[in-house]
Write a structure and sequence with these properties.
The chain is elongated. By secondary structure, the chain is an alpha+beta fold. It is about 45% helix and about 15% strand. α4 (about 140-150) crosses α6 (about 175-185) and α5 runs parallel beside α7. β2 and β3 (about 75-80) form a beta hairpin. The protein contains eight helices and six strands, in the order ααββββββαααααα. The strands form two sheets. A four-stranded antiparallel β-sheet has the order 1-4-5-6, with no helix packed on it. Strands 2-3 form a two-stranded antiparallel ribbon.
């Protein structure tokens, strides 16, 4: 009957030193070659060639998806990328305190110093709120509206304030004042609502200006107070 012979044990070696070298053979086969090779290995292990190993270093690719406002989130802060990459993924890498943003063809899109201050810090948010309020000329409506955003949209306060900051630098203050007042009067408390109101008012303002120029150039004299009514509707 075949049986297992633990050669290491028969050769006076324990599995403590060679746990993986347990050779099984049959008493009928009498595999002397196996015994001889194993004995040589145990007596002269240095005579065998070592197993060649190679180490391969694989760089981990870190990606981020570009947000609708052309920014990406990295370590609690937002960094801008050029327009045209909304909803696309980009590669990021931090090197010596600089954030490198590139596409998947390794074309460099932007470089930004990595900020050490998190925007979700209470003090930082408060300072940011004050700076936006200053851009909005410190009006009471603006103060109320920013406070509502911070309270009602606390989870997205960074995106909200970032949008309000862009609106304050892109549009006239008179249009922003009207848009903020409209939001407060209608229970709207997000920067997106304010942006939509600003765009609508700006479009109406441009249409009104164009209409006014056309009326003046045609030298039409309105009757029965129609000019006053038109101005009230447009402004």
């Amino acid at each position: 009957m075949p049986c297992e012979i633990h050669l290491l044990k028969n050769l006076g070696c324990t599995s403590k030193f060679y746990p993986n070298l347990v050779v099984k053979c049959s008493t009928r086969q009498k595999n002397l070659e196996t015994l001889i090779n194993l004995k040589i290995f145990l007596e002269k292990p240095d005579s065998l060639l070592p197993i060649l190993t190679t180490s391969v270093t694989i760089d981990t690719i870190v990606t981020r998806r570009v947000r609708k406002d052309d920014t990406i989130l990295y370590k609690g802060n937002f960094y801008t990328v050029p327009s045209g990459y909304t909803s696309h993924k980009v590669k990021i890498k931090e090197r010596e305190g600089v954030l490198l943003i590139s596409d998947f063809t390794d074309h460099m899109l932007a470089q930004h110093p990595v900020s050490q201050i998190l925007l979700n810090d209470v003090t930082k948010i408060a300072d940011w709120q004050e700076s936006i309020l200053h851009l909005l000329h410190n009006t009471e409506d603006a103060k109320r509206f920013l406070a509502l955003i911070r309270t009602k949209k606390s989870l997205f306060v960074r995106e909200q304030f970032s949008l309000m900051e862009r609106l304050a630098t892109q549009y006239e203050s008179s249009i922003l004042v009207k848009a903020i007042r409209y939001c407060l009067e209608n229970g709207l408390n997000s920067a997106v609502d304010c942006r939509n109101s600003v765009k609508d008012l700006s479009s109406r303002h441009q249409t009104a200006s164009h209409t006014k120029i056309s009326v003046n150039s045609s030298k039409v004299t309105p009757r029965n107070g129609s000019e006053t009514f038109l101005q009230q509707q447009l402004f």
